[in-house]
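Severity: low
Component: inverse-folding endpoint
Summary: output formatting inconsistent between runs
Steps to reproduce: submit the following structure tokens with default settings.
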């Protein structure tokens, strides 16, 4: 049987894939998590739920629980708030980072959409250069492709593009 934390362990792989693999299982000091039977310090949701349970049912202080489970007090309060709002699903970590093409909005998105006309190909790299010329905003070609529905190439209008005057 593969050891805990081993990359070939199916549970570790499943937790990693679900985004619930505890990045610091060694910080969990609760004795229940040391036996290796039911409680698993690698399972972030289980660790967070047990931490919340220890405070609300076992009357452990927030400071003690945070220390015992290897997290900060603000992390405890965030977990509590997420759990109160969404139940167990609230304990699943949220993906970090932007939630969409944050540079490709408003005027820039309207500009890109205006360039699309069936029959005239325009590659995303060329569109990125046009955006830089007109708006002085650098956007990766793949961002443009994703915003336009994942198409590797887009279509361009025949209207000439007006360039923004250089600031000096």
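Observed output (run 2 of 3):
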């Amino acid at each position: 049987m593969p050891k805990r934390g081993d990359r070939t362990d199916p549970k570790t792989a499943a937790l990693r894939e679900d985004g619930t693999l505890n990045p610091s299982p060694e910080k969990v000091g609760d004795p229940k998590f040391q036996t290796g039977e039911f409680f698993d310090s690698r399972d972030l949701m289980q660790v967070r739920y047990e931490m919340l349970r220890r405070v609300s049912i076992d009357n452990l202080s927030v400071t003690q629980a945070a220390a015992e489970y290897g997290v900060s007090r603000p992390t405890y309060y965030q977990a509590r708030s997420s759990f109160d709002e969404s139940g167990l699903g609230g304990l699943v970590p949220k993906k970090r980072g932007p939630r969409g093409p944050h540079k490709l909005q408003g005027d820039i998105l309207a500009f890109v959409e205006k360039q699309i006309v069936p029959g005239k190909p325009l590659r995303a790299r060329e569109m990125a250069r046009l955006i830089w010329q007109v708006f002085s905003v650098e956007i990766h070609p793949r961002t443009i492709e994703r915003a336009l529905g994942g198409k590797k190439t887009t279509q361009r209008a025949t209207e000439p593009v007006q360039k923004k005057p250089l600031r000096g």
